[in-house]
Amino acid sequence: MRGMSGSERIQDVIERKVREAYESVVLEKARGRVRDPERAVKVLEKDFKLVVDKRLVTLVYAAFLNGRPVLFEGPPGTGKTEIGEALLELWSGKKPFILPCSESYDEYKVIGDFHPQMAMKHGFNEESFIPRPLLAALILDTGVLVDEVRRSNEEFQNLLLDIVDKRRIIVPEIKRVFRARGTGFQVVMTSNPEDIAQNELSDAFLRRVIRVRFSYPSPHVEERIIRLKLDEKPLVGSEVMEIVMRVVDKLRSSTISHKPGTAEAVSWVRLAQAIARLKGRERVTIEDLAEAAESILVKRIDDEDVVVEVMGEYLSAKAL
Ligand SMILES: Nc1ncnc2c1ncn2[C@@H]1O[C@H](COP(=O)(O)OP(=O)(O)O)[C@@H](O)[C@H]1O
Ligand SMILES: [Mg+2]
What we know:
The chain contains 15 helices and 9 strands.
């Protein structure tokens, strides 16, 4: 064995397939682990452009130490997916897998499947088995972000919890049990409880996860987030920022169906900045902000009247 390269040393067929298919993606631009919450907060801001409270990082890391899955719950655009992804990466030092849930998710889609022709010819064995992301994450010792978990069915949710709980995946068809070898294999799930079209999470499920509530940031924090993501020029002055904060705040407490998250606040100012640039301006004006507003803030025709009214309230007062 000595002197052989990494891939030659791998005797296990499944592990070799996992490495061939997924390892390069997982190790892409790999940075070291950052398991100290205080340092993580700094790296999140600097490298990921994410503003995350130290208490949140500490709670998530504590859940990981206890081997418990974490559930991020809150309205759209509050950073659940991006923060989950980033924390999994900092914890394991490798890129996590993202599973965007749908009703049809099952073990074949996430653990592994059989190549139909090969299975016909050679049977359901390791040669015809195709490993999928959840198994790959366990083997490669990295995290999994299960996005919008309410869109999956209860059977899938229970399967997932059982795997995280016991840190192993059983594939009966090939008579194999795969066990996690390190602590990098962790699961963060996201969900938006206000989305009525989605499945309810069972009591058993909620009992087993560490739930972390996400909400809209304070105006002060939100301004910091937006500023992190802006280009240096054209300049965005504090007056423009204040209007943004007020409008999004008002819309969040209004009756519109698609309330703006931090994501929309960021997109709005960035679009206004691009408009100002195209006009050759040095600074973003309230007019630029107004021009960008509807395209970002109105997601449904039904919401249009309210958005226009709120915009008028804050923009005309300032523009005049
Ligand atoms: N705390 C935050 N720090 C930095 N950016 C944030 C934060 N919260 C939201 N965002 C912005 O919102 C965008 C969408 O976030 P996302 O993770 O998709 O939200 P969610 O999953 O809650 O819908 C991000 O790209 C980012 O621009
Ligand atoms: Mg999301």
